[in-house]
Amino acid sequence: MQSLGKQIAISIIVSLVLTAVVFGLQQMESSAQFIHEKVWSIVIFSAILGLIVVIIGDWGIRNMDAQSRPNLFLGLTVLRLLLSMGFVGIVLFVGIEDRIIWVANFFAAYLFYLVFEIYSILSNLRAISTEAEKT
Fold first, then answer.
1. What is the CB-side half-sphere exposure of residue 101 using CA atoms within 13 A?
2. I want to staple 60 with a disulfide (CB 3.0 to 4.6 A). Which of 33, 49, 72, 83 is the partner?
3. From the CB of residue 21, how many other CB atoms can be counted at a distance below 10 Å?
4. DSSP conformational letter for 77
5. Is the dihedral of CA 106, 5, 65, 133 positive or negative?
6. What DSSP state is assigned to residue 36?
7. Is residue 105 packed enough to be buried (19+ CB in 10 Å), middle (13-18) or exposed (0-12)?
8. At how many degrees (to 10) do helices 99-134 and 4-27 cross?
9. CA neighbours within 13 Å on the CB side: how many for 96?
10. 3-state DSSP helix/strand/coil percent for the chain, to nearest 5?
11. pLDDT tens across the length of the chain (135 residues)
């Protein structure tokens, strides 16, 4: 099982990779039309949400029994989904230009973090299963 510091560092690295990809796409004239001008709000929201999920997940792994951990991972995925839906709803309700592009950018960032979350869950599950075999 990875330490909290290592998980946070990996989450920050993933956020920096997303930031670099977005910045690189903005610099290319051919793809700049597909990147919304307010994409940085998406990147910041996703990074903060990623850190929250990592911290809650680490707390749950350390404090919950082995039978409750799958429910924790499912709950974290639902939490990410609900908070994301709330963020999208608020931004669309307040009003933003080029809604379709913004939502597409949000969906791309959401999937990027979801893949990272699934990868980290699988790596933690391997550690948890080997820990359970020892007892």
1. 12
2. 72
3. 15
4. H
5. positive
6. -
7. buried
8. 150
9. 19
10. 85, 0, 15
11. 567 788 888 888 888 998 898 888 888 878 778 888 888 999 999 899 988 888 888 888 888 887 777 788 888 889 999 999 999 999 999 988 889 999 999 999 999 888 887 777 777 666 666 665 665
